Amino acid sequence: MALANGVSTVDFKKPLFSFGVITDVQYADIPDGHSFLGVPRFYRHSIQVLQRAAVKWNSLKTLKFSINFGDIIDGFCPKDKSLTAVNNVLDEFDKFNGPVYHMIGNHCLYNLPRDKLIPLLKIPSPYGCAYYDFSPSPEYRFVVLDAYDISAIGWAQDHPKTSLAMELLQSKNPNADKNSPVGLLGLEKRFLMFNGAVGKEQLEWLDGVLQDSTKNEQKVIICCHLPLDPGAATPEALLWNYEEVMEVIHQYESVKVCFAGHAHKGGYSVDSHGIHHRVLEAALECPPGSDAFGHVDVYHDRLLLSGTDRMASTEMVFIS
Ligand SMILES: Nc1ccn([C@@H]2O[C@H](COP(=O)(O)O)[C@@H](O)[C@H]2O)c(=O)n1
Ligand SMILES: O=P(O)(O)OC[C@H](O)CO
């Protein structure tokens, strides 16, 4: 804004840009159920949450894009209906007047292999994996991690990454059911088959992106289906090698916020380096008529997540 005396000021109340967020829709055309621990799951209603999210995002007229943090359909979806269910959910995302950036979650992989999912979700995959970055404004860079890069689900049974994941699970989790954390202590409870890890090449790629964003004075937002900080989620939900990923991230002051899904009740923490970790509340666990989605206003010095209903609002002010 230019003033009469020639002094110009910046309007700090206006965001640089804004984007929509939603996670764990886990749609399936099946009756309501519950998680292993008894938390109710509303498989048919969750797509209505997404429908209301798209209406709200469009009504704001200011959102540049939206991000889906994974698990668009549920593992209980009958497998002959997987493709239809994915397309039903994508049709709803298409009603949003802007691009949607997707990531892969475990439930996506229970339904379809990676080579089917990646094109359906239009995930840019220059490295054959599902990690990528984009820059919606010169000041910011978004990094989308592939949390199931090393995983016992999604790759062919004879793929080296399946073997690597199974070896790790065998060494860390003695239970016959590799999804069971029984007997595992503390943070070791993350070594469950429904989680995964970021592989070596992806870690090197991440390091390169963070070097480049530092050179270009860009702030970085990390997006990952699996949470990266024990303060923001239960141990059972964490990325297997979250420490290795955070060791890379902590070398750079450019990273300000990490967003995740997967841990359905949501969470928030600020880590030892001042990075904000916000795990988003799941659409799947919204009882009929309730919602969980939001939009994020991005400023030079902070992010403001405005959540709807079960998604809590969070202001994340950067420490430097
Ligand atoms: N405390 C737990 C949690 C889960 N499991 C196993 O994981 C499967 C998926 O869990 P959901 O929460 O998504 O239902 C579940 O079927 C169990 O096999 C577990 O053993 N202990
Ligand atoms: O969405 P699910 O079924 O993979 O559940 C994930 C758990 O809530 C993580 O603790």
TrEMBL record:
<keyword id="KW-0479">Metal-binding</keyword>
<dbReference type="GO" id="GO:0030145">
    <property type="term" value="F:manganese ion binding"/>
</dbReference>
<dbReference type="InterPro" id="IPR029052">
    <property type="entry name" value="Metallo-depent_PP-like"/>
</dbReference>
<feature type="domain" description="Calcineurin-like phosphoesterase">
    <location>
        <begin position="19"/>
        <end position="265"/>
    </location>
</feature>
<comment type="subunit">
    <text>Monomer.</text>
</comment>
<dbReference type="GO" id="GO:0008663">
    <property type="term" value="F:2',3'-cyclic-nucleotide 2'-phosphodiesterase activity"/>
</dbReference>
<keyword id="KW-0862">Zinc</keyword>
<comment type="similarity">
    <text>Belongs to the ADPRibase-Mn family.</text>
</comment>
<dbReference type="InterPro" id="IPR004843">
    <property type="entry name" value="Calcineurin-like_PHP"/>
</dbReference>
<dbReference type="GO" id="GO:0047734">
    <property type="term" value="F:CDP-glycerol diphosphatase activity"/>
</dbReference>
<keyword id="KW-0378">Hydrolase</keyword>
<protein>
    <recommendedName>
        <fullName>Manganese-dependent ADP-ribose/CDP-alcohol diphosphatase</fullName>
        <ecNumber>3.6.1.13</ecNumber>
        <ecNumber>3.6.1.16</ecNumber>
        <ecNumber>3.6.1.53</ecNumber>
    </recommendedName>
</protein>
<dbReference type="Pfam" id="PF00149">
    <property type="entry name" value="Metallophos"/>
</dbReference>
<dbReference type="InterPro" id="IPR041869">
    <property type="entry name" value="MPP_ADPRM"/>
</dbReference>
<dbReference type="GO" id="GO:0047631">
    <property type="term" value="F:ADP-ribose diphosphatase activity"/>
</dbReference>
